[in-house]
Amino acid sequence: MGNRRKRKIAGSRMNFFITVLTMSAIFIFVGYLMGNYATDLIKEEHKASMEMERAKPRNVEVIETSAPVSSISREVQTNPSQDRSPAPPNLPGPVQVPSIKTDAEISVFYRVQVGAFSEKVNADNLAKRLKDDGYECLVTPGPPYRVQTGAFSSEGNAKNLMDELKSKGFEAIIVR
Questions:
Q1: Can you tell me the mean pLDDT for 37-52?
Q2: Distances from the Cα of 91 to the Cαs of 40, 62, 104, in angstroms?
């Protein structure tokens, strides 16, 4: 009778071990599937955000100076050495290099939005109409697909474009 009991206990331990091993394999497989799904979602979000970032125009504003560019380039061509000789007499004093405002220095950026659609086909059709009329435009990725044109640092310029588009029959609003 003792042997039967030992075999029964050994058999139940073996069953328990096989059950734990089987459940572990199932959990590992489900975890693998969930990890792949999460990784694919993250990759898609990253790809969409990178496309949106690439589609954004850069906020760089060049400020005009009084020095003509031809005289600056003439100085560079006639004096390629590293020494700092005086400027040619045809320049009106020290040469001023145009300053560039960075993204941090430009506080507001205005665009004219002509439409927002849940389907990309509709946004592309409107973008084609705008391009046929001679306007550069942008369709943002992912629903809602926004059709935007213009890139202005002043709201007045954006308003002028908005009024022009409205006079041509487009619905337009200014967005930041």
A1: 85
A2: 60, 21, 33
Report how far residue 73's alpha carbon sits from residue 92's, in angstroms, rounded to the nearest whole number: 14
Q: Give the H or E element holding residue 157.
A: helix 155-167
What is the CATH architecture of 110-175?
2-Layer Sandwich (3.30)
Residue 62: partners with Cβ closer than 8 Å, 6 or more residues away? 98, 100
Write the single-letter amino acid at 2.
G
Closest of 128, 135, 132 to residue 151, by C-alpha:
135
Q: What is the pLDDT of residues 98-137, one digit of tens each?
A: 555 555 555 678 999 999 999 999 999 999 999 999 999 9
Domain ranges across the chain: 1-55, 58-80+90-102, 110-175
